[in-house]
Amino acid sequence: MSNKVAIIASNGGLFDAYKVFNIATAAAASDKEVAIFFTFEGLNLIHKQGMHALSMPAGTEHFAEGFAKANVPAIPQLVEMAQELGVKFIACQMTMDVMGLTTDDFVAGIEVGGAVTFLEFAKDAAPSLTF
Amino acid sequence: MSIKADFQLDAKGLSCPMPIVKTKKAMADLVDGQILEVLATDKGSRADIAAWAETVGHRYIGTTEEDAVLKHYIRKCENDTIVEKAFEPTIELVEVVGKNGLILDVREEVEFAFGHIDGALSIPLGDLEARISELDKEQEIYVICRTGKRSDFVAQRLVANGFAKVYNVLPGMTAWTGELIKTI
Q1: Residues of chain A whose C-beta is under 8 A from some C-beta in B?
Q2: Which of A28, A96, B48, B128 might form a disulfide with A85, Cβ 3.0–4.6 angstroms?
């Protein structure tokens, strides 16, 4: 049985962030080795400012109340927890170049890599997930 | 009934995945065989805690619910699969039923409460020294736990204390298919 979980985060909304970080922290808490490859809009999720103001899909703003009521942790809190549990963050170099971003724009402790960096990790991971 | 746990974790009001994350962290402070009680209001935690324990190799004992608060019980298992059964004689679980002797269940109180053999006496391993006087040296005693590991240890302690008619029940409650008495 594989002890790795590989996740691609390619979307940058609040819902996307919860899908990514909930699965990632749950997997890490279950003693899995977890890596998330952040690419395109997915980079939002670990962007120092961006992750504090992730948007919800149009027409779903009323869920904000539900999030508060369910006492769902804030995304920055989940990011910190994921890192504390050893989840590896890999930011996509190519997207960063396109968007003019540098390592300093992101939370500390990330790695920057290309597609092969992620593929190398994911080659024997199960499950591999894309959000 | 109230149940004795070694550690308690309050995860009330927290939503997925926090109860699991907190449980994982709390578990690090327990030693092998200790019981963690997790209080949670996240309804999904019932299935999640059981699945988590299964994944990482701890023993999920059960869950109770009281006033919308779930109480999950997990026993920490470092190496539950490595069982050295040194004590002789042993007795097969199926042979114990209907005998005149005493079935002595040495699992933790909470494990006993979630299901035991009718008529069994509960003395958790850790309480043995203090409660050994409750046992009759002339009676046949069938010591049982979950897999045969703790019962092996207790059987040896009993013989060292002058008990002559002691048997270690193998394989233990994991193989019990008969009626389970619950006191919770």
Answers
A1: 22, 25-26, 29-31, 70-73, 81, 85
A2: A28
| Global ipTM | 0.79
- Other beta carbons less than 10 A from residue B154's beta carbon: 24
> Same structural domain for residues B11 and B49?
yes
Exposed (0-12), middle (13-18) or buried (19+): which is A45, by Cβ within 10 Å? buried
B20 contacts A30? CB cut-off 8 A: yes
Boundary-marking domain end, from B75, B98, B119: B75
Examine the domain organization and report whether B168 and B95 are in the same domain. Answer: yes
Domain boundaries, chain A: 4-130
Q: For the structural domain made of A4-130, what CATH number should be given?
A: 3.40.1260.10
- Residue whose C-alpha is closest to residue A123's, from A25, A4, A10, A1: A4
Q: Read off φ and ψ for residue A75, nearest 5 degrees.
A: -60, -45
Q: Which residues of B are catalytic?
A: 16
| A87-122 confidence digits (pLDDT tens) | 999 999 999 999 999 999 999 999 999 999 999 999
A26 to B15: CB separation less than 8 angstroms, yes or no: no
CA dist B171 and B94 (Å) reads 10
Q: Which range marks the domain in which residue B157 is found?
A: 90-175
Q: How many domains does chain B have?
A: 2
Q: Which residue, chain included where needed, has tokens 């994911």? A: A122
